[in-house]
Specification:
Length: about 260
């Protein structure tokens, strides 16, 4: 896809993030009921209304593209372009009033992510990654760019929760034992911090395509890399284990720790 078309589609992705934020902000720290979905993850009216608002923008601006969202499934499955949406990545943080969640918008061309947006509608921070370009960051402080970190013993490691690691927790603990320190929490926001050079590694399990599709263009455009725990690029059939690195020199050592 040429750069002009990608730039136009990035503007569409940002418009979708804008309407999601307009829905989410008035509901933040409101008294919302949360339901449990079939996978035991929570969902609120904010998740559903934000995804519906994004779908409306995308249907108007790119009617030829498919759309897959966490809350409302897949439309136009045969389309070569597919939007992938997570209206609130980090619903647990959202319902407890912590601004560590985000809205994720990705575009896949023939199954490969070519642009991604991470938007934090409360703090006003936004990361925009476009294939072949440097990641753009909008926020009160910081600039896009991962930091140099050649050794695990000086690396900041992050993961959302031990619960999501499940039976892979002992493998994660081997990596944690080598890292400088571990911090918990953050969902997609942690990947944004990695793209700002605040975190060096994020290792998580059980992520769905709407959780990771937007992350790759953002992280790669900031100088990092996104892989599974075996070091392979993520794909639709990936098992859901995700490894984000700010410095590619960490890859071999991290994979050795995470080996099954």
């Amino acid at each position: 896809m040429d750069s002009g078309r990608l730039a136009a589609l990035a503007a569409v992705a940002e418009a979708a993030a804008d309407v999601a934020g307009a829905v989410i902000r008035p509901l933040f720290r409101a008294d919302l009921a949360a339901e449990l979905k079939g996978d035991a993850s929570p969902v609120t009216i904010a998740d559903r209304a934000a995804e519906q608002a994004m779908r409306a923008v995308l249907a108007e601006r790119t009617p030829e593209a498919g759309v897959m969202g966490e809350e409302f499934g897949l439309d136009r499955p045969g389309a070569s372009l597919r939007w992938v949406l997570d209206p609130i990545d980090g619903t647990r943080a959202f319902i407890t009033g912590r601004p560590l969640f985000g809205t994720l918008v990705a575009l896949l061309e023939e199954g490969v992510p070519v642009l991604g947006v991470i938007d934090q509608p409360i703090t006003g921070e936004r990361w925009v990654g476009v294939a072949g370009e440097r990641t753009r960051f909008r926020g009160p402080a910081g600039r896009a760019g991962t930091r140099c970190c050649a050794s695990l013993d000086v690396a900041e490691l992050s993961s959302t929760s031990p619960e999501m690691l499940g039976r892979a927790l002992p493998r994660f603990q081997r990596l944690a034992a080598r890292a400088r320190r571990v911090t918990w929490g953050g969902d997609c926001y942690a990947y944004g911090l990695l793209a700002l050079g605040q975190i060096d590694i994020v290792a998580e399990c059980d992520l769905k395509p709407w959780d990771w599709a937007a992350l790759g263009p953002v992280i790669e455009g900031a100088g990092g890399m996104l892989r599974d725990w075996s070091g392979r690029p993520l794909a639709a059939d990936s098992p859901g284990d995700v490894l984000a690195l700010g410095d590619a020199r960490l890859l071999d050592a991290a994979i050795a720790c995470l080996a099954g």
